[in-house]
Amino acid sequence: MIADAIRPLVEVNPSLKVKSIIAEVQSKFNYTVSYRKAWLAKQKCVAKIFGDWKISYRTLPWWCMAMCAKMPGSRVRIETLPIYRGSEEVNGIRILRRVFWSFYPCIRAFRHCKPLVQVDSTRLYGKFKGTLLVAIAQDGNQNIVPIAFAIVESETAEEWDFFLHQLRKNVVTQDGVGIISNCHESIQAAIARSDGAWAPPRARHMFCIRHIGANFLKRFKAPHLHKLVINIGYSRTEQEYNINYERLRERGEAYTNWCDEIGLQRWVLAFDEGYRWGHMTTNMVECINSVLKGARNLPVNAILRATCYWLNKLFTRKSDEAHEHIRNGFTYSEFATQRVKENLHRAGNIVVNRFNKHNEVFEVHEMDNGSIFTVNLAQRVCDCGHFQVERLPCRHVLACCANQRLDWQVYINDVYKMSEIRKVYSVKFLPLDDPVT
Ligand SMILES: [Zn+2]
């Protein structure tokens, strides 16, 4: 009875604490159960929802087939290895080597997200000591949308190659995309051997600033300089970059030499040509906290099912939120609305000089601090760096539009439209049901 009562909680969080179970039973039945009884109920419940370790490998292909049957268009790739007894192959038994999967709703979702993918890895803590690789997209309201997963043995170039190849073939199929990853050598090697699939002009590979910061600390053990390095990455203009770079150089050229090795386009916002959309990290931490909560302790097939459960919850919630927001009369995402509001607020103090007769190039003066910026509406760039990074009108663009009686909404990228965000979550997940064993 307890196992049934706590099932919804365990579905969401398989690492649910025993004391939370005791509290749940207390509030539901007004009765205090022993720690042991609560613990047993949890084990029973986990086995019921996610299945046994023993049948985990055996049922994995079944789950994958169920997933593709229930949600046609989903993509799975399982690779196995033969087992040898001595030098002879054992017939009929193979062991799991690696598996890639992406649910159809996620594949469709990506079309309405920013053309950017964040990839990272995390260790698994269950009996299968593998690594989970994840690809994450971003909607127009700064929310993460996990789009593809793989379980592999470890983080090697070969395993990354497998994941990135499947990702490119099945999910991230368009060109002109950015990819943000950790700084692991294995992923760089995998991208180098991707035959141009993840290299210019088809894609731009960039690094996560959190990992760069961590690598800097590993190399120099100078925590007081960590912030200076991070600031360089976040520089939106060349001028800002020069100032931040100089600050670090003053502390020692060894530090800036180390930074030079990374390559400007790979980590500094001012030089990425907009591929990052302002996103600096892989967002893996957020993904683990929201979607993969507790999943890393589960058997392999259970991880696949768990991602389905959680993504279903995420999509349902986000879809409801989007409809609610539209009902309330909003055209753009909360993020975009808020950002434009702030910028409008600051646009009042800007004097605009038109530079050419096509209304496209302007010179603007900020009266409170005397700064001068050039805005090019046709090329959608502003010296401040915000316009081209976020694809939202900065305060200077808003001032130009007010001055020339132009419609600033033209300069808000479609990805921020609520109609587009609604589409991200529009394809529904379906239950996978129970396996026939
Ligand atoms: Zn600007």
Tell me briefly what this model is.
The protein is built from 18 helices and 11 strands.
Indicate the proportion of strand residues: 15-25%
Which strand order spans the largest sheet, edge to edge or round the barrel?
Answer: 1-2-5-4-3-6-7
The helix content is 40-55%
What radius of gyration results from the CA coordinates?
Answer: 25 Å
Q: In words, what does this structure look like?
A:
It is a single chain. This protein is of the alpha+beta class and 437 residues long. The chain has three domains: 2-50, no CATH class; 56-208 and 281-319, Ribonuclease H-like superfamily/Ribonuclease H (Nucleotidyltransferase, domain 5, 2-Layer Sandwich), CATH 3.30.420; 334-416, no CATH class. Helices cover 46% and strands 18% of the residues. It has 18 helices and eleven strands. The strands form two sheets. Strands 1-2-5-4-3-6-7 form a seven-stranded mixed sheet, with helices on both faces. The protein is globular. The mean pLDDT is 90. Zinc ion is lined by residues 373, 382, 384, 386-387, 394, 396.
Give a quick set of tags describing it.
437 residues, alpha+beta, Nucleotidyltransferase, domain 5, 7-stranded mixed β-sheet, 4-stranded antiparallel β-sheet, 18 helices, 11 strands, 46% helix, 18% strand, globular, binds zinc ion
Indicate the topology.
Blueprint (H helix, E strand, L loop, with lengths): L1 H11 L5 H12 L5 H16 L5 H15 L4 E11 L2 E15 L1 H7 L5 E8 L7 E8 L5 E9 L4 H14 L6 E5 L3 H8 L10 E5 L1 H12 L5 H8 L4 H12 L3 H10 L1 H4 L16 H7 L9 H28 L6 H14 L2 E5 L6 E6 L5 E5 L4 E2 L3 H5 L4 H10 L13 H7 L13
Parallel strand pairs: 3-6, 6-7
Antiparallel strand pairs: 1-2, 2-5, 3-4, 4-5, 8-9, 9-10, 10-11
Helix pairs in contact: 1-3, 2-3, 4-14, 6-7, 8-9, 9-10, 14-18, 15-17
The structure holds zinc ion.
Zinc ion binds next to helix 16.
